[in-house]
Design goal:
The chain is an alpha/beta fold. Helix content is 39%, strand content 23%. The protein is built from twelve helices and 13 strands. The protein starts with a helix and ends with a helix.
Length: 308
């Protein structure tokens, strides 16, 4: 009798272990995602890729999280986002009325977190002695009007946020065919301008402060131009100080848009980037944080030195 009971116990234990093993092998016991652990995919506008790469690296080193980053043009990000390829996106603008309506129909209320301020920068070849440019001249060129000071405008991608920003500023629906050059990413723009005198490159400022290994040596061959706003006096460079004072005319805010609908990594990552550590990363990147992280000042006195 004892042997029979013992055999039953062993059989039940074996079946239980086998069941758990099968569940693990088919992924049904996958660890539940929380705000600080699990895995997620984040779509990001290519023009701010360097900053978000840094944020993800630090976030993953502090928490049990695995974040896959997909950098695309703004239109591609929104296409994937609206088709539910990913529920987290980072863009240099917030959602418009039509996009918000899309999520309202799905009964999803996007959580939008401002994380900093970037800018669109104009660059030229170092062979050009002119380091100033009037925004009005660029707008006129975008409208198809000849400008002696501009030979051509170079964009990363016709689907990019920089093209969308400049076409809206110029009040046009499509870029003119004459004098407009486009490639794929911001790195291509820096490379082309560094090799061609007379061209004006239009890039996300983040790439100039945090250049990739491929273009790091090319940055020295381009000027970052100071810009004069329309109907205003003075030329201003895209620096943190000028962004903070609202002097640089091509500033744009950055947003994390979370449509997960639950307390997942989207919420945790947004809180991290908007928090002190994340804002320090924004500050270090050369962009403008939403809030400047505090600094601890330690005053040393003779008494404290003696106590050591």
């Amino acid at each position: 009798m004892r042997n029979f009971v013992k055999l039953q116990y062993v059989s039940i234990l074996f079946i239980t272990v086998l069941f758990i093993s099968c569940k693990q092998s088919d992924g049904t016991t996958k660890e539940k995602e929380t705000i600080l652990k699990g895995s997620a995919t984040i779509l990001v506008d290519e023009s701010i890729k360097p900053l978000i790469e840094d944020q993800i690296a630090v976030f993953q080193s502090d928490y049990k999280a695995k974040i896959s980053l997909e950098a695309k043009s703004e239109k591609e990000v929104l296409r994937s986002f609206l088709n539910d390829t990913s529920q987290i996106a980072i863009l240099p603008r917030t959602l418009n009325a039509e996009e918000l309506k899309h999520f309202k129909i799905l009964k999803i209320k996007p959580k939008i977190t401002k994380i900093g301020t970037d800018a669109i920068a104009f660059i030229s070849n170092k062979k050009s002695n002119d380091t100033l440019i009037a925004l009005e001249d660029v707008i006129h060129f975008m409208q198809g009007k000849d400008q002696k000071s501009i030979k051509g405008l170079v964009f990363d991608n016709l689907n990019s946020s920089t093209v969308r920003y400049m076409t809206e500023l110029a009040g046009i629906k499509e870029v003119p065919k004459k004098g407009i050059y486009s490639f794929k990413v911001n790195e291509d723009v820096v490379k082309f301008v560094s090799e061609n005198d007379g061209m004006i490159g239009v890039v996300g400022l983040n790439w100039l402060y945090q250049p990739s290994a491929e273009i790091k040596n090319l940055i020295k061959d381009v000027h970052v131009l100071s810009v004069k706003a329309v109907d205003k006096n003075g030329f201003f460079a895209p620096t943190q100080n000028n962004l903070a004072e609202g002097a640089y005319p091509l500033a744009r805010d950055l947003f994390i848009i979370n449509c997960q609908g639950y307390n997942g990594l989207g919420m945790g990552f947004a809180s991290f980037v908007a928090g002190e550590v994340g804002q320090r990363i924004v500050l270090k990147s050369g962009l403008l944080p939403v809030r400047v992280p505090g600094r601890k000042v330690v005053f040393k006195t003779k008494q404290t030195e003696k106590s050591k």
